[in-house]
Every structure is written in C-alpha cells, then in structure tokens.
Fold these 4 entries.
Entry 1:
Amino acid sequence: MTAGLLGQGLTTYVMLLLLGAVMTEPWRWAGVWLARDLDVESEVFRWVKAVSTALVAGLVARMVVFPIGALAEVAPWIRYAAFGAGLAVYVFAGRHILWGVLAGTATLLLATAWLGQ
Amino acid sequence: MAGSDGHAKAPAWTKGAGRRTAFLRGVMSAPTTPGLFILFFAMIGFGALARDAGLGAGEAVFITASLFQLPGQVALVDQFGRGATIAAAAFAVALTAIRLLPMTVVLMPYLRGSGLPRWLEYASVHFVAITAWVESLKRLPAIPVPLRLPFYFGFAGVLCVSTITATFVGYHVAGQVPPLVSAALLFLTPIYFVCSLVATATSSADYWAVLIGTVLGPILFLYLPGLDLLLTGLIGGTLAYFIGRWRRK
C-alpha cells in the first residue's frame, strides 16, 4: 500500500531515493569537503559549532512548542514543565542524561495522567 | 575542552589497541548510551507514522536506512500524508538536511587522521544525525586519533541497525499503544537532544547558542516557516559566537 504520489513497486523506491537521500546526503558530503583543513581550535570552528548548536536547539524547541501527533494533545504548560524539569534534573543532578530524560518524561506522564489535558 | 587531544584521559582500552579493537569498543559502547534507547523509541514512533501515511513496511525501513535523519524522515512521510507535490516534498527534506552540513563540519576534525582510505570518511558521514553527532563529540576527543574512525563506525553501525529494527517494530505496533504513551515517545527526542546539547557544550558560546536557539526557534517558525531552522542557526549561532568571544576577553 503506497501513497499515490509514489507510484508502484520499484518506482516507489527510486522516488524515495530521489526525494530522500538525494536531498540529504550532499549536505553531509559538503560538510566533509568544507571541513578538510579545519582546526578545532580555530575561530571558524567555534562559530560553526555555535551555529549548529543553535540550529539543533531551535529544532528541539520547535518539537516542544509546536509538536506533532499525540504530543500535540498534551497541554502546553505540561510540555514546558516537563521539558524544564528534565533539563533541571540533568544540570543539577550530576549531569546524567538518562536521569534528565527519565525525569522529563515522568513529569509529562504523571502531570497528564493526574491533571488532565 | 573538545579542542584538546585528550590523550591524558584516554580510556584504558586504547593502550596498544588496533583498529579492530577500536571498532569492537565502538560496538560495545553503543548499548551503554541512553541515546541508543531514546533513538530506538523515537524510531518506533517514526514506523507508526509511516504506517499512518500509507507507506509499506519495506518503504518505511528504506527511508530510515537511506536518510538516517529523523527530522527529514518525518518531513518526507508528512508530505505524503498531506498529499503534497513531489517538488514540495523534496524541498521540505532538503531544508531539514541543511543542518547536517555544519554538524558534519564540526565532527570531521575528529574523524580524520585514521590512515584509512579517504572514501571511508565520506561514507562515515552518512551516520551524521543528532544522536551519532552528540555521542561522537562526547567520546571521540578522548580516543587516540588513529582509532577514532573505526570506533565511530562500530558505534554508528549499531545505531543504524537499531533504528532499522525500531522502524520495523514501530510499523507493526502502530495504533496498539495508548495516546499518552505515543506522546511520551514523541517527547523523548527533544528532552534527550537538549540534555545532549548541554553535554557537548564546551564554551560559553555553546551555552549561549543553546539558550538563544531555544528562544529563537519557535519565534522564527511562526514568522518564517521553512527557513526557520537555517535562520535560527545562523542568527542565534553568530550572536552566541560573539557573546562567547566577548566573554573570553
């Protein structure tokens, strides 16, 4: 069963390759090429790292503020509280990522189960 | 500091180790990272989404293996679900993939110098996506330069096999979990990513980038959808870089 846009059989996979990997992989290769003489102590590297960090942080914030699917059914304040709780536990409880993730997810589950939508 | 060669704190196994040992250590290190499990659950969510959009199980798995970047995979499947045109779907995926360029640039200095053929470096970046990126930035600096690429291939290889398995599992459990569980699965990715960003931050510029990016991302998404991620990175990152530079003085 496929969406009409994609056609049938082998055509589907060729289409997926063109729409997916062909749109994705060249960016990674360009990164290899651009990084060929880059030193991790250089100013350019510091800037690129800040840019990529801000970009991923923006993506993360978007997933929480404008979520898709079932997460969109959870009240915004619960999402923000869970996000803040997870981050706080990570930062202040010994910097263990697993604790941060568990605390955030537990906050989301418990707050939604007890306090509703 | 990510920039230091890290030989002082190199793990004990690296002493006298060859590439094979490094590869196996990479494989073995994968199950000890929370990222593997979080990515696994996130990909279960993707498998379910792909089924909702009307794709086949083989197609869902093919998307995971060939893109290996969850935001792009979601964008691609989402476009089918909405009946978008081919051009719109391609453009949406390309936009999510632009962020891979600066991420690759940041990771590459740690993957060079293995003495292995150059094409392997180009092959290795197929795994550049957030999980592999943050975990590599945490682990690679402490590993001696010649062993980094083999270690990375071992680690990323496990991630790749896991995501493919999870997509398949998610496809088949779709619609069988309560909505609250689905919501929790979707929440794992952002909370894991933000903790990871703080974990890989090595300078005040990086911390500022996390803060400014978090505030700027949703605002730009509202006003400039489509270009929001790219602009968040460029504006937020540049601002953070200058704040960091000013504070270094």
Entry 2:
Amino acid sequence: MAEVSAKENVKKKDWVELKRKPVKDPGFDETVKTLTPEKIEKVVNAVLNAGKNSGRFIAPLETCIHCALCSEACHWYLSHDKDPTYAPVAKVKMTLWELIKRKGKVSPEFMKQVARIVFCECNLCRRCSMYCPFGLDVAYQIGMVRRMCFLLGLVPQNILDQTNSLSATLTQLWITQADWIDSIQWQEEEVRADIKNARIPIGKEGAEVMWCPLGTEPKVAAYHIARMAKIMNVAGIDWTVPAEDGWDSANMGMFIRDMETMQRVVRGIFDNAARLRVKRIVLTE
Amino acid sequence: MYDFIKDPSLYNLVRGPLVWIAFIVFIGGTIYQLRTMILLAKKEKVVYPYMDLKLSLRSLLHWVIPFNSVNWRKRPVVTTVTFLFHIGLVFTPILLLSHNILWRESWGITWWTLPEGIADIMTLIVIICCGFFFLRRILAPEVRFVTFDSDYLILFIAFAPFITGFLAYHQMLLPHKTMVILHIIFGEIMLAAIPFTRLGHMFYFFLTRAFMGSDQGYRYSQDW
C-alpha cells in the first residue's frame, strides 16, 4: 500500500507534482494502460479543433487575466486549506491550458492526472463563474476536458458503466421494461395499504403530469415511487408514468460530456411526453 | 504626417505614422476580434437563445460598481486597487491636458480635461496599483500558481506608458524629449496590443459578463 501511494504521488516528473491521496479506479488505472501518446494527441486535438468554432470555449481563453479571484468560490479550494492547486483557474491551467500548450502531445500518465483533476476535484457546480469578475464559464472548460477524457475512456468506472447502460437501455442501471412495470405495480400495491384504490397510471394518454424517476428508484429505493404516488394521489393530480423506455431522468452522459447519450436520454423523455400528450414533465431531484 | 515627411526624425516618426498605425490596429483589431467572437457565439445553439438585455445589464451593473458583488466585498483591498487602477488607466489618457493639446494640434478638436494635479495623482495611483498587482502575482500563492510570463508582460505593457509619462511630466531620469519618445512608443505598443493579447478583456468583459448574467438570470439565479 505504501509503495502504491509513493508511486501515485509522483505522477509526472516533468510537470507540477501534486500531493494527493491516490484515487484507485479501474476506469483510470486499467484504461490508462491501453492509451498511446498518438491516440491522446488525436483525441485532444479533435476536441480542441471543434472548440475553435465555439465562442463559449474561446472567450474564456482569451479573456482570463489569471487573477485567481475565482478561488474563494471553490469548495475544494476552501476545504483543502486554500491549497492553490485546487483553485478553479489552477485546475484549468493544469488541464486545458497545458494540453493546448503542448498541442496534445502528452503521456498517458499525464492524461490520467488530468482525468483525476476534472472528474475527482471539480463538480462543475459553476460557482466560480459567479465569483469571476468576467463571468467566465470555467465549468464549461473543465467539461471540454472531461469530453476528451470520455473519448479516451478515462472515466470513473461506475459513471462509465451507468452511461453505457443509458446508451444501451435508456436506463441508468440496466433495468428492463418488464422490471420497470413490475416495480410500478408492486409499489401500487404498497400504496393501496395506505390509500384505498390508489393508482399509478402507466402510459396514460392525455394525463396532465408525466413523472420520470431516476433509475435508482425502481432499482434500489422503490419506496420513493410509493411516496411520489401518495403525493400525487392525495393531491388529486392527473398523472402518469411512461410505459416505454425513456422514463429514466438520470443523465449520466451529461456529467462525463457524452453528448450523444445525453441527447438520447433527453429525447427519450420528450418523445414519451409527446406520445402521451402530457402538459408537464416532473423529474425526480 | 507632414512633419515626418519634411523632417524624418524619431520624434516625428512616433508622433506621425506610428500613431496612425497604432490607432488603426487598435480600432480595426477590436472590431475584428469582437466580430469574430460574436459570430462564433452565434454558431452556438445555447448562447443566443439565452441572451437577455435586462439580465445582461443587471449583471454588468453589479460588477462595474465597487463592492456591489459578493466577491468584491470579500476582497476589499483587491477591489479598491482594481477600480482605482482601471479608472486611472482608462480616463487619465483620454482626459489628460497634454493629450488634448496634441489632438488640437492635429485635428483641431478638444474635450474636457482633468486639472494637471489630479491627472498627476491618478497616474501615480496607476503606477502604485501596478506595483500591487506585481507583488500579488509573486506573493499570493493562488495567483503565483497560475502566473505565466505573459502575465508580467501585459502588466508591463500597461505600466510602461504611465511610468514614462509620469517621468516625462516631471522631467526626471532621462532628457525630456527622450522620455516623451519612449512614452509615445509604449503608448502605441499598448494600443496595438489590446486586441491581440489578454488585455482584450477590456471589451470581452462586456460579452462574457452579458452571457453569464443572462445564463444565470434565465435560471432565476444571480451571478454577483
């Protein structure tokens, strides 16, 4: 264990040495073995070239005056005794600016460190934009780096798995349609213990509200469905849940900037809403 | 221009053709950069639909007034220095008596001028603020970590015209004419550098601020 942490702490010799506890994640540790510098260069430059057509991407690069006034916004910075390497601008410096400066010619180990910074040390909360005198979209920049990491597969394993599940089944946790409908009917019975003849209408056309839960609800916290059903029934709302795929509002693709899956998840929900002709979509969370 | 053709001395060079070049680069470059950025933003699906004049102005107003945003209040020293610096940097050159005389000699136009004493103090404030920014770059760990050589360079670009102008006005250090020539050259470098360096935050400020103000305001959130 001691050996591992000693190795992990010296991540990149020709670059800033970060003193961090090691993050053990097969998504980082295993993927990094498959990377080659050529592959990294290709992916990084593909994203950077696409970014050249994006005002949101270019404007902060040309405006940021490196004043570090954003640092106090960051809970990572504040909770690490104001360690300058946790400041938002520092994170951009260590990832995006460095990749631009080197034109993507970096080693896999460097990329692993970049992935660690953008996934494990930033939540894309955008508080730094509220503290920046210019209102620069720092989170968007970090998001672009996340996109590079995603295209390389350098993503924390559990998020990657959930995104894979979304792209295959449009649910976060590999839930089949049969399981989904079964969970709803099971919870309908549970609610009926409290409210007589309570209903969870599945795929009811023309309802007013369509409720879309997160995948975790039918999977590990089914009682949430019952609670929502109680609220809806007592409030007397004309509601429904979709019967077909596209009911899961957990958009993990958004977090790792898997734009393709992200779009399909949103489209699935809107397609269901259009099919059922509902007036409102209600999401968990 | 005519002076330079009649008598091609260094002074007439910096006073004539180089001024023209500096202003053309500054104005042309600014228009070019702004146009590029606005066209780039137009290509984005998520910028223009969110833009809102009221929300943009609301955000801009909160940030151009000192101590009117959380971050300005959290850092009173930086805020004071920043505002003094920028007010001096923008208004002293425009309202300076000597500059006005140059405009009048060339084109016969004049506008209001600052009393010489006040202009002198404002210049001194800009110089001191530059020193503060320089020290902050060295001493504050979070700033030092993200400081590049280019940051010192752009600080120097802003600093040089003011220190040379100040020394020329008080006729210190170098002969007056040499100092004035240096001052004019540095001023022209600064003008020409604005559109093509990160000094461009002078005009990008309004664009990025407007976008963030609209983007946050759209979600009923405040970005100050």
Entry 3:
Amino acid sequence: MSQNIFVVIEHVRGQVAEISYVMLAAARQLAQNTGGEVAAVLLGHNAQDLGKDFAADRVLYIEHAALAEFTSDAYRVALAALIQDQTPRAVLFGHSSIGMDVSSGLSAKLGYPVVSSCRSFTEDGKYVSQICGGKIMVEGDIPSPTALITMLPGGYKAEQGKSSQAPSVTSVAAPALDGLRVTLKQYIEPEAGDVDIAKETMLVSVGRGIQNKDNIELAGELASALGGSVCASRPVVDQGWLPTTRLVGKSGKLVKPKIYLALGISGAPEHVEGMSESDVIIAVNTDPNAPIFNVAKYGTTVDMFDLLPALTDKVRQAR
Amino acid sequence: MKIVVPIKFVPDLVEELTIDPSGVALDTAWLRLIINEFDDHAVEQAILLKERGGGQVIVSTVEADGSDDFLFTAAAKGADQLIKMTGDFTGVNNHALARAYAELLKELKPDLVLTGVQAHNDLDGSVGPLLAEYLGMPYVGYVAGITLADGSVIARKEYPGGLIAEIDVKLPAVLGIQASEQPPRYVAYSKIRQVMGTAKIEERPNADLNLDGGVSISRMFQPEAAERAEMIDGDADAVAEKIVAIIKEAGVL
C-alpha cells in the first residue's frame, strides 16, 4: 500500500480533457496531506508526449494499440491490474463520460469504495461531494486503504495542474487485452450549420421552467430583441424543443458570453460546468433555493412568464 | 431480444430538502420520491427498441411510494413484465441496490440492460456499471441512441462538445442512458387505469441487503455560496427595468 495519488488522464483524439488538469491540481493538495506522490496515469498508443505539461511527480504510461482511444473494457482491465499492483491511496477519475464508465466497475471488481461527484478536498483530507443537483453537499473521510473518486470541475483551477517542466515517464507493461467486448467504430462530429452559441456575446438560456415548446418562442423574441441567441439546459434539448447545437453544459457547449440570462434553470452542476465563466449571469427562477443563485451575479424570483413580455418590451424601447 | 430496465427512485428536487438531526442524511419524513429521470429515458429507449425490432421489455423497481403507479405507467407505454422488489430500501447505497438487481437479473437472463447513466443522489458510483460488473457484462454509459446489430449493439456515446462515439458493445451488456432517442412519451391517465385492470406486478421479496461498498458521511449540509446573487426585488416591470440597466452596463445593448 502506498500514499500516492493516481490521476486517470482523460484524452480523446489526442486532446487532453481539461478535467485531467483539474484532477492533477486536486491530487497535489491530497498528496501534500498523505505525504505521497502524484502520478498521472496515462493510457494510450504512441501517446506518451501527452504528459509533457502535467504537474505530476511522474507519469505512469501504459502503451497498447487497444488503448489508442478510450473504451471502457480495455481501460477497465488495464486500470484494474495497475491499481491492484500498486495500491495507491486514492485514484481520481473525471465524473465524466470516461471516468464514470470505469470507476464504479473497478469498485465492484476490486472491492475499493468509489466516492462520486467530489468537488474538492478539505485541508484535513476529507472529500466534499456535491449531490442532488447541487442542492446538497456531503463531506466524509476518504475510504481506506484505497479509494476511487470521481471529480467534478469547479473546485480547482486547471492551470494549477499544468507545469512547464515535463515529469519523468515510467512505462508500465499493459496486461493482456484480448477478448474485449467494447470497440470504438468511429467518431461523429457535432452537426454544424446552426448558430455557434460558444461565440455569442448575449445568450438567453432556457431550462425546464420554460414548460413547453411553444414558450421557447417567448425566449426567442427576447433574444432577437437583444441581438443574441437562445440556448438551453439538458431537459429542454432532451424534449426536442431545441437542437443539441444549443445545449450548454457537460455534454454540450462551453459558453462565455457577456450576458447569460438563465430562465427557469435550476443550476445543476452539469449545466453550471458549461456557463460559469460568463461575464454576467442573471438568473430568473421562482425557487429561491435554486443553486443557480449561487453562481449568478444577479437573481430574481419573479415568474418568467410575467417577466419575459415586460423585458422584451423594455429592450425594444432601449434600442 | 429481452431488455430489462432496473429503476432507482430519488428525492424530488422540486421539494425543499432538509437534513435530519443526525446531520448525515436527508430527512426522509418530508422527502417525496420520484423516478430518476435518466431511468425514465432508459424505459423509453427500451420501448423504442421493442417497437423497432420486437422483443420483450421488463421494468423492475424497488418498493417505494409511487412504485406501482410507475410500473403501471411503464406497462401502458408498452412494457411486457413488471417486477417489484419488496423490502426496505430506504437510504440504501448503490452497491447494495446493484447487488439486489444483479440477483434478479441472473434469473431473468436479459440480452440488454438499460439504466439511467446516473442519478442525482449517487454517492458511491452509479447503478449501471456496478450492475455490469456484478453480472460480468460490459458497460458503456452516456448513451443517446442504440442500433441493434448481430450479437451486439451500436451505442452512440456522448462526449463533451457534442462529439459522438459509435461503439460496438457485445451482448449481453449494460448501457447507461443519457437520453432516449425521443423524449419519454406521455400516456393518458385513462390508459394507465385500463392497464391497472389487466397488468400484474410480480413481487419479489428482498430480505437481506448487503450494504458493503457504501461511502461514509461525516457531514451533510446545504451549500453556502461565497457570493450569492444580488436579488432584484419588485414586480415584473421593475425587474425588467433593472435587467435592461445591467445589460446596458455590460455594453451589450
């Protein structure tokens, strides 16, 4: 057993995901507490150069053709062998499309607990997780001897996980990766041709509170009066009321407009991840406890259906 | 093709959540439980697959307020078999829930298991990948679209920024659904009532829950924002006036 902290690096098509750097920053804080090392665990094929800017004590690199791109089965087998062999104090995964595919299975397989949705660690080394759509925080000891942890962004800055000095790379032999049941066929690029909401300076964003498809038009009128665009949180896109090109958040776009007007959006972490860096966030939600008010600069609990026509009128007058 | 959808119930976030006197759990006295919305998408996806390629859809829940209504609704949508695991599942962790479902699934021998990719109160991993490991099946999550192939499925897995990975997954398998290809359908209450007369819920007692694998909690609290939003008071007109001023100040208007 060691006191080392492992970070499972996420990369897709040669691009290291930002959450990897956030996790390296978190791991550094944790390692100072345990007295261990930070090791970036990099799985790939001809990919060891990806680790050049990692703020880690070392990179543990597993090379295999079957690890060229993420697939859950190959990662699971390779990581199980590594974790079992080296028994680190904690292994950090993204609370993401990659990390969540493998961390729970590894927990069941290896018998190490997994802590979900961790946002930060306390100074004395406790996990702090964010659950119930951001409405509840949970704190506790990191399970011993080895804990698997899935990390949300927001608790640490990605820049703190970067270094100008490349860490040393230790190659670790890959286990046998045959009989894999999960294979990547191809990537499909997001549909183009619609407005690129990532480039807009003014966004009117609608959430579940918009209630139905017809009401999207009310937000659309306001957006066009303002010279901006309409975007949305996940439930609206899942209902088919707006195309996925308008989705803001974890599986959608990352936006940084000058004004982000959030209408009927609760502020679940998956959404906040995509818009928290907007210059000015104005939140409209009838629930005074909605977590969106914790990220917004301005807020109001007036009913959006009263507000929308009045606001659209006043914007038109102001032009 | 036999598809099973195991369901998790979660606190309704529309209600105010309160923490019980122990300080480490939600106060269940005031808690209203609803189906995990991702599981609702999993049910829809299962029905869509059945409509496209035939087969059998089995929906299973644990006993909870509203679980019967939920199961009858699923039957009205097209589910063929309804199973309720009875017993006290209050506050049960995901490892225990997944183990209980694994026992059931070993008997049912499905080709495909669809679960919601996550639930908002997951603290010890998510049910889908835990279940997959207990069953020795492969798992792929963040799925928003499935095509049946010969002995496998092609799952469309979402990555940030709208990128999709098409992934071949050998059956039997567990998939974690992010979104069904169509929004979960609405069924009229009259149709649900009709189903209530004919559909049967099979009860399956679950006496011994093994709670190993959970995560210990020393404190539960509501987040205090470092900087909470400055609240704008007044009626719609007054608020609109102020918002226009803010937008002007930002130089966007």
Entry 4:
Amino acid sequence: MSSPAAAASAHDHGHEENKFQIFVQIAMLLAVITGIEIITVYLPFASWLLIWTLVIFSAVKFLFVIFIFMHLRWDKPFCTILFFIGLFLGGGTMWALLKLFGAAASFPLSSVVK
Amino acid sequence: MSSISAADIDHHHDPSTSTGIPNKKLLMWTFLASDCMFFGCLISTHLIYRLHPPPGVPAARQIFSIELTSFSTFILLMSSLMMALAVNAIQKGNLRSLRASILTTVLFGSIFLGCQVYEFHNFVYEKHLTITNSILGTTFFTLTGTHGTHVAVGVLWLVLMYIRSFKPAGAEAAKGTWLLFSFAHLVVFAATLILTGYVVLGVARAGQADGFNLKMIGTYAGAQYPALIATLIGFLGLRWFALPRGEVDFDQRNAVDVEMMGLYWHFVDIVWIVIFTAVYLLEYIS
C-alpha cells in the first residue's frame, strides 16, 4: 500500500504531465484556428459575417492563451480581474475611437479593395 | 541548490503578500493591463486610417503578403508553446529542459523578427510604402513596429534569463569573473543572432532574385564566406559557454522570474493575434 506522501507525489506528477499535454494540445488547436481564419477570408459570404467570424476566432485564441499559457486558470482571480480592467479600458477606448471617427470607414469597401 | 522538490513551492500563491500573489507577478499583470490600453489606441488608430493609401500606391491588400504573415503568426504561436514549456520546466526544477525551451523560444522570436525586417524592407523599397508618405504607412509601421520592439525586448529578456541560468552557486558567484563571463556570453549571443539573421535574410533575398537552387547557395556562400565563418565561430562560442561548470544558482525558486518573462512573451503573442486579424486578414475580405 502506498503512503499518502507517495500518493501526493504521484498526483503532482500526474498534474504536471497533464499540464504539458494541455499546452501541446492548446498550441495545436491555436494553429488549426489560425489556418481556418486564413481560409475564412476567401469564403464567398457576406462581409459582416466573415468579420464577426474572425472576431470570434481571435477572441477564442486570445482567451486560450491568457487562461492556459498565462496560467490565469490556476492563479488567484485577482490577476484575472486586474488584467480585464486594462482589457476593458483598452477595448472601450477602441470602441469610442471607432465610434467617434466613423466605424463604417473601418469596414472593407469594395471601391478600395481591388 | 536543487534539493527542493517541486511540491515544496506553490508557484501560483504567495502567503507572505497581502494579496496572496507574488509581487513580481502582480507587477507584470499591472503592466500588461496598461499595455492593453496602449495597443488598443494603436490598433484603433490604424483601423480608422487604413483606408487612406498614398496616391499611386495600391491598396493594402496588394501590399500585404498573407503567406509571410501567416507563417509569422504560426511561429509566434509555437514560441508561446515553448515559453509555456519553459515555465513548466523550471517549476519542476528541470534546468536542461528550461534552457532548451528558452533557446527554442529565442529562435522562434528571432525568426518572427527576421520576417518583420524582410516585410518592412519589401514594403519600403518595392511597394514604396513608408512611414511618412501616407497615413496608412504611419499607422501600419507605428503599430507593427511597436509590436516588433516588444518582441525584440522579449528576445533580449530571454537571452538574459538563459545566461542567468549559468550563474555559479556559492562563493564563485561573488567573484567578478561571473560578471565578465556573463557579459562576454551576452556579446557572443547577440553577435551570433545578428550574424545568423544577416546570413538567412541574405539567402532569402538571393533566392528571391535568382531562384532557390544549389548554384545560388554556392555563389552566396562564396561571396559571404567571412560572415558564414563568423557565424560558425559564434555557435561554437555559445556551445563553449554552455559547458557544465558545476552547481548553479538557479532552481525552482527562480520560477516566478521565468513566469514573469513568460507572461510578457504571451502578451506579445496575444497582441499579434489581434493585429493579424485587424490589420492583415480584414484587408482580404471583399
């Protein structure tokens, strides 16, 4: 029968092994999403649909990196709150600037894209 | 120095601080939060002004190379994986794996920078898009140049951490020889990186002009043999610096330093995820 210390050590080892596998799987997933993004821009669908698809793909990649690679999933929630304060302020600034200076002008126009 | 087991250190919590978070990590998260606002302004400025190409210059879609940018994106994603593995390695006290992961991250970061240098050179000298001849050029070069500077700072930080991992334990470290040794290591590392970049970019340009074949490589090697020999000497020098010299003052207790560096590197990656979509891919939607 194994001792509690040995069991804890085995658990830790299993956890670390698991983390290694998670990192590799997430990296492969991110590479696949990037490939899909590149294909997406050539699809013959409406611009607004393609733009929103790209935004969602980017957000998924972004969240995977910050929660898994940057360990937010395992860290104290305060780190997540702190980073998201900056993220919301940055995102809010972007939204305000695009709204003030014409969000429509930032969409691709057929007259410009030859 | 390496008698501590991985289970002895909680790498995510520090009970000695009022927040329970290591102060260094808290500092880095605060900095990254502020950097979000900085890049948010640069990206939105580019989005607003991107429809103002200079007179006589084709639209951004004709200037960009989606193949090159996709390759850069893939390389940066893989560098993030290697950085995560480096943090994982030092948390387990695996110094050998840490060094290998850091070196691979440096390699990928340098490839990304090389691609950016190649892209900028191509835009300025062949597509005639400069930082001063249009609003598009100004916002594009400011945004991607700022990101590239972040990557360059990250590469420097990685190299410094790699060299730090060789600091000898005990009285040896107190001697001035370690300072001299680490400075010489840094100089050789930087020179080798720059020379390698020069050689690789030179081969890429020669290949673009004459086509990639053995004759081109032979002609290039004949013309640039001093740079090739210097690069080879640089790599041999790096191998010499990495030879084992006894106990080192670097173990799991330094994990928070590596993790801080990792947070910075991953942030550079997530900024590129946004730039790749907002600056490059958006131009291909018609």
